[in-house]
Write a structure and sequence with these properties.
The protein has two helices and no strands. By secondary structure, it is an all-alpha fold.
Length: 64
Amino acid sequence: MYKHTNSLKRRFTVNTSRYQTNKAKLNRRHKLCMYKHSYLIIISKYIFIILLLIYKQTGREKQT
C-alpha cells in the first residue's frame, strides 16, 4: 500500500494521488458490499428452495 502511494506521487501531484487512493478504497468497500449483498441473495434462495422441499414432503405425508 505504501509503495503504491509513492509510485502515484511520482506520476501525479500529491492531491491527485490522494484522490486516487481514496477512490480505490471506496471501490474496494463498494465491491465488498456488493459481494455481501449477492451472498445474502444466494443464501435466501437456498433457504426458500429447502423450505419448498420440506413443505412438499410434509404435503405428501399428509396425503398418504
